[in-house]
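Box 3.1. Reading complex inputs
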Amino acid sequence: MGIFEPVTVLGGLGLLFGAGLSIASKAFEVEVNPKVEEVRQVLPGANCGACGFPGCDGLANAIAGGKAPVNACSVGGQAVADQVADIMGVNPAESVRKVAVVLCQGDCHKAKDKYIYNGIEAKDKYIYNGIVDCRAQNILAGGSKSCSYGCLGCGTCKDVCEFDAIQIIDGIAVIDKEKCTSCEKCIGVCPKGIIELVPYEQEVIVKCKSNDKGKNVRENCSIGCIGCQICVKNCPEDAFVFEKFLAKIDYEKCTNCGICADKCPTKAIWSSLEGVQAKAE
Amino acid sequence: MGLFTILISNIFVNNYVLARFLGICPFLGVSNKTETATGMGIAVTFVVTLSSIITYAIHKYILLPRELVYLQTIVFILVIAALVQFVEMVMKKTSPGLYSALGVYLPLITTNCVVLGVALLNVQEGNNLIETIFTAVGASLGFMLSLILISAIREQLVIKDVPEALEGFPIALITAGLMSIAFLGFNGLV
């Protein structure tokens, strides 16, 4: 007798269940939008989560379901947005490419220190040897800088950047706007909250976040915004917002004329325009 | 043993999770929210009850007469796997929200030892059909009860000031241990 019966019983049962399942799969079929897979194919596939959805699959689902715009992927930029728009059959919306910018220029020559953190150059006071991490440093009396708004320069943002776009130069973080994909990871880890997204085309930026009064800013840093409002008065486009002793540019109104950067007495307004730079030097 | 006794015994005294330590994976995996815990409990109840009935029939009418009882484990797993697939399909169609909330734990019912445990124990104890059904319902209600209890506690734990080293899973494991000790109090009831 032997092997015949158990094999038939097991095989028969298997066949029975298999047939039952295949019938059930037809009866309970759920239609999957074919566009989901197509959209997923053109997305970068880095699963970085910058779009706010759980990975590229999540975004593909949301785009195909109409819950997210076709240009929702900031890493892929315009190229991916065009392809996705193609698949979805809509006109590609112009997406403004944005890059992250560290809003502080107070490097080790221009800003004063409260104490010395891990041998990072300082003029006097305490010496602290701890973890080289801005978040750790921030816990200790708000960091080593006299200015409580400035970049701490430990490179926590540099460590999380997956695109190698951040460098620490003279004790402050500087982001290479060509490499930046605006994934916002650095923005999330910066304890000072001084990294912001700025349009790629923007040539004039107020690189200071200090809400201190002018006198205090001057004491702490030679390149901070002292709230003199000269930029506000001189701007032909009325593109400045001024509050809490700090000037801020409305990037939608700004035409990158560079007048403000030219007039700024402390050069807290950074500019990549050539004429202005030459004058500044 | 009366049917009511079977029910009480399986829900409280011999609770499959807290007294027999079966089905620990979903017990900790899907107990973050009461809603998903309830959904998981219902899915398990459905699978356990149905699989117990089918395995009972297969055991009695196919395996026993042909003296193939040694095949029971593999055949029971076959039944359970097919049933879970079926439940998955139905759930995907009727309740996509619950389907995505349960995620990977739904196909994992296949390997949930409560399901196989109930089927095997029923056969071992020689229960008749009615007793089998009551055991299955009791076992899965007990599973659902412990799942809902721990998920309710864990929902509270999220907003409580837990020591940092114990946040998340560690405190859940401690909670599970305390619950298990508490359920020991039912011993001697049956």
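In summary: Strands of chain A lie at 98-102, 115-117, 126-128, 166-169, 172-175, 195-199, 204-206, 240-243, 246-249, 269-271.
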